[in-house]
Amino acid sequence: MTVKERIKSVLAIIGRLLNECLSFMVFTLLDFLDFVLCYVYKVADFCIEAEWKPCYCCSSKEVITSSGKILVSEPGESKIVRLTSSKLQLEEISDTLYTRPSLLSDVSKSTVTRSLSRRIKRRRGGVRSTFTVNSTIVEMLQGRIGGQQTLPIPRWSDCDCKTCTSWTSDSKETLFVKVDGARDNVREDVVFIHGFISSSAFWTETVYPNFSKSAKSKYRLIAVDLLGFGRSPKPTDSLYTLREHLEMIERSVVEAYKVKSFHIVAHSLGCILALALAVKHPGSVKSLTLLAPPYFPTPKGEQATQYMMRRVAPRRLWPLIAFGASIACWYEHISRTICLVICKQHRIWEFLAKLLTRNRIRTYLMEGFFLHTHNAAWHTLHNIICGTAGKIEWYLEEVKNRLKCDITIFHGKDDELIPVECSYNVQAKIPRAHLKVVENKDHLTIVVGRQKAFARELEGIWKNASG
């Protein structure tokens, strides 16, 4: 090793140690701030809405149900059975919603006790089973029991502008969908699924305008705003589980547009939904294109959900994108405050952005970042990214064994949020998948900035799949 290499190695070690030390101090302060904000929001919710609103950091983990109507999972499983007005539905929730280890959370949970624990016993073949559920989830779902639907009114800390609440006026039960391309004599459909804190504009403002006339005459392009994001519904009582997201995509796209067979293009968190959709409709998928899929194989002995949370949100100051992910994932009330400042005031931020840039830049990425609620972002992040960590290997096995279509993976080599190793992990599970690592591109610029090239690559994938 040369002297120069030794110096670099020493500086790297010092940098890592400094990052760890500063991160420990900063995140300890953030733990305390989130603890304080918990009670600030409780008081604010009570004063403004005349009701104590549930949160995960102070609720007991061993609490169950209201009137014996919501049954929950057996110990060790993050599932609850939800009784609606017509049927029982199985919801799958991530334990990371209410188990995020920190010094203050451990202290608060030992001092702030709630006498909400009850027990329900039901007979299943003559055997009695005990069920438990997090009290916050019970409180959120109470409004759906027996058909008593919670009114689709935004909370005081959510935006109530026309863009954010238009879906409530006519009781829409479908997602916002942007369709382009072929209208008559549609040969094939393409479904685009965006990532976390984004919208259909991630596709419609980038690759849509860059598809060739030939492609637009053959393919019907369908980009969807996921539940809770963009211009889609943002129900306040939803847990934004995998089942809810999938059902809404099926209702809004597959059923509404009578889609029989289709190509899928998905980015980041959307890759998980794409895999689940492909597994559910294995004979209908003609090609599967994944961009930056978040797949970290869980080491033996580790709990999948907690391991995924630590990988995606490592509680580090650097890189900055990891710091942002850590804030969003670990701090329920700080992230709510950020939504209060940014999302509720999105019209002001959009105006300032256009004013400062003299309207020279398109603000579609900002709009995708603004148009969601804290409830939607918080639950989707935990229930989809973290909650499916134990399932994704099964999805990949199913895709490998049951899907006959072409599978293509794109990943930016400089992606610091979802490192390129994730795509190599996917390729290791599905050897026939074609992986393209794009130099000098990150989590967003894998599409943004190279949209023309990416549009041509997609056209080539669809053409090969059809041939």
A few lines on this structure:
44% of the residues lie in helices and 13% in strands.
Please explain how this structure is put together.
Its EC number is 3.7.1.9. By secondary structure, this protein is an alpha/beta fold. It has a domain at about 175-465: 3-Layer(aba) Sandwich (Rossmann fold), CATH 3.40.50.1820. The chain is built from 17 helices and twelve strands. It has a seven-stranded mixed beta sheet, with helices on both faces. Strands 1-2-3 form a three-stranded antiparallel beta sheet. The model is unreliable at about 60-90, about 105-130 and about 145-150 (pLDDT under 50).
Whole-Å distance between the termini? 53 Å
Structural Rg: 23 Å
Number of strands: 12
CATH topology of one domain: Rossmann fold
Mean pLDDT: 82
Global geometry: globular
Q: What's the total helix number?
A: 17
Top-tier CATH class of one domain: Alpha Beta
Q: Name the poorly predicted regions.
A: 60-90, 106-132, 145-151
Report the biggest beta sheet as strand number plus sense, adding barrel if it closes: 7 strands, mixed
N-to-C order of helices and strands: HEEEHEEHHEEHHEHEHEHHHHHHHEHEH
Pfam family, one: Abhydrolase_1
InterPro entries: AB_hydrolase_1, AB_hydrolase_fold
Keywords: Acyltransferase, Hydrolase, Transferase
GO molecular function: 2-hydroxymuconate-semialdehyde hydrolase activity; acyltransferase activity
